[in-house]
Amino acid sequence: MAEMPRTFTASAEVRLASPKPVMERLCAHFREFGEVTVDGLCSRIDTGFGVAGLEACKGCLRISAEGKDAVALAYVKLALAEHLLTFAIDERPEIVWQGDGAAGSPLPYFRQMRVVRTMQVTPRMRRVTLAGDDLQRFASGGLHVRLLFPKRRGVPPVWPTTGADGRPCWPETADRPDVRIYTIRAIDVAKGEIDIDFVLHEGEAMPGARFAADARLGDIVGMTGPGGGSIGEADWYLLAGDETALPAIARILEELPAGAKAVVRIEVADAAERQDLRSAAKLDLQWLCRDGAPAGTTDRLVRAVRDVAMPSDGRPVFAWTGCEHAAFRSIRKYLREDCRLSRNEHLAVAYWRRGFSGDTARKEVSQ
Q1: Predicted TM-score (pTM) of this structure
Q2: Residue 187: pLDDT above 50?
Q3: Which CATH number applies to 110-227?
């Protein structure tokens, strides 16, 4: 008799003065990303990669998490902890999970990667090919990964482990890796390789651009993921973004089927940053060049999206956009309020935020 697949589970009791409002905020947030059901003081959140249960009790919020494997469980625990701690920040509650995924264990969604090739795609875009083991899970489940850049070349990195609250526990050292989010431009599971395209931004707070510009064969980098959502099935697509979203748009286009139509609007610095994009789909492609204007200071992309005529014949549509935070907010509002696209018909992402760096660029951002 074949063994039944194992379910990975964990639970915790979090002391809170007012657990019900916190539960309600969690449910409201996760409605953007999954299915939420509420029954009085109990609720259930199905995120697609795992399930969370919440029960508001006197003086505490009981939370549970389950997933089909260690990675799925880790993602549910991480998501619950991150947002619970944000919504109850004044109380600074302690979260200690019991069950699978013990504190101190390696992050199940982490891989150590090494540089095997580099190439210049355009004057401001550099491709780095990374090699690692067991990359099958990175071929689906989201376009994005977090890359962890060691502070010093040649010094063995200390990677994060699983914390008691389900979040990564980082080393208390000056050598703590810098973390940035990137798109997997291409993946070859059989070879154990992925391509990451880096925009070569200038500035001190650009560890990814610095890594890409100086990358040597054998350099080590950490990787966690994948995440960031995926593209819905449709007959007609709107894909829009600036150069930071260009790797994602290029990958999406390569995966679209023949018979689909893709309206593509991409903002870049100048004509030299245009790339040859391949797709079996029928393309309506426009490049929007800033021609000297700093990134994040124009409304070219917003206006280009608004100028696109959305289908009115009832065919399935999907809109995807990735760009600077201000443009993201404007485009997302337009897609939701003017175009009246449902959550399943669009995905908007803030890839960066002018004047901010790292994950601070993505704060207060809902997809």
Answers
A1: 0.88
A2: yes
A3: 2.40.30.10
